[in-house]
Specification:
Blueprint lengths: L2 H14 L2 E6 L4 H5 L3 E3 L1 H10 L4 E5 L2 H10 L4 E3 L15 H10 L4 E5 L4 H5 L3 E3 L4 H7 L4 E5 L2 H10 L4 E4 L12 H10 L4 E4 L5 H4 L4 E2 L2 H10 L4 E5 L4 H8 L4 E4 L14 H10 L8 H16 L3
Parallel strand pairs: 1-2, 1-3, 3-4, 5-6, 5-7, 7-8, 9-10, 9-11, 11-12
Helix pairs in contact: 1-13, 3-4, 4-14, 11-12
The structure holds 1,3-dihydroxyacetonephosphate (13P).
């Protein structure tokens, strides 16, 4: 099918099946453009918690669709490709979290949403890159077990020095593709540009940044800034939204290597096929949903 026919067919299926499409900022441009909502992990979770749609198709990676299912278990949650996983989420299991709890029994477990539903089920509270510092500050605990991203963990540790943070050693392979040398080289080429990066980047890259935030925070910061040149250190999908909100600004991706192969597994063809067949669906055990929802709800209750 031609792209315009595919878009029309998807719009028709959305209407007839009362479905909404929720897309992450890293999705392909054409997938972002047919979505009812595009945002970062926190905004996607908030949208899912409030949505009245019967069917939600989540164009992102698997943990994002699981988060939607946990927050809205009565809804049909579809994904374009069940193999769109997150290697960072795969670095830790629920058993490993339970072992950490044995070692640090008085510490609270804060799990980044980039985790499986089983890991969320054994966590006290979840966080995303946009609220991790706020979530950790909100807890009465002095000790924090932070899983699984070591760079976001170190970012939190620097901003909340009064707490003892025990950090898991996971990382996002896509954000690890940009080095401090590469960012310094880009700064040399564009000396007037501000450097904005995601907290999943290594600490040496974060140290060169003028602004560190989630994907939507990066988009908001650039849109609102009076500056007109930016070096962007996160997955290249954000460039699509950035070109829309800041069409007259000069935007340079920090490294051409910053492409997440899992996020790119979702295509318009797969979105169409999923809506048509109502497959693949996200299905989770009820007991895991109930326990994981406590941790997600606790996060959503933290005041902005
Ligand atoms: P955001 O919450 O910033 O959109 O990040 C999601 C993610 O998985 C980053 O790699």
């Amino acid at each position: 099918m031609e792209q315009t026919d595919l878009v029309r067919a998807i719009e028709e299926l959305k209407r007839t099946s009362k479905a909404v499409i929720l897309a992450h900022n890293y999705q392909r441009p054409e997938v972002q453009d047919i979505a009812d909502f595009v945002g970062d992990s926190l905004a996607m979770a908030q949208y899912a918690a409030a949505s009245e749609a019967n069917v939600i198709l989540v164009a992102g990676v698997r943990f994002m669709a699981e988060t939607v299912k946990i927050l809205a278990p009565q809804k049909l949650v579809l994904v374009p490709d069940l193999n769109a996983g997150c290697p960072l989420a795969d670095t830790i299991t629920a058993e490993q979290v339970l072992k950490l709890k044995e070692v640090h029994p008085r510490a609270a477990v804060v799990s980044y949403v980039n985790t499986s539903a089983e890991v969320k089920a054994v966590s006290d509270i979840c966080c995303t890159s946009s609220n991790a510092v706020r979530v950790v500050r909100s807890l009465p605990h002095q000790g924090i077990i932070f899983v699984p991203d070591r760079n976001l963990g170190a970012f939190v540790e620097r901003r909340v020095p009064e707490k003892k943070v025990f950090i898991w050693d996971g990382f996002c392979p896509t954000h690890h593709l940009v080095s401090a040398e590469e960012v310094a080289q880009m700064k040399g080429l564009h000396p007037r540009a501000e450097v904005v990066v995601h907290p999943e980047c290594v600490p040496e890259v974060q140290a060169l940044a003028d602004f560190i935030g989630s994907t939507s925070q990066i988009i908001g910061h650039i849109a609102d800034s009076e500056k007109d040149e930016f070096i962007v250190g996160t997955e290249e999908g954000v460039m699509h939204a950035l070109r829309k909100v800041a069409p007259n600004k000069q935007l340079y991706l920090a490294s051409p290597k910053m492409v997440c192969p899992n996020m790119k597994k979702n295509t318009l063809e797969k979105v169409y096929a999923a809506l048509l067949s109502r497959q693949p669906q996200i299905d989770l055990p009820g007991e895991i949903i109930d326990r994981a929802r406590r941790a997600l709800r606790a996060m959503l209750e933290v005041k902005p």
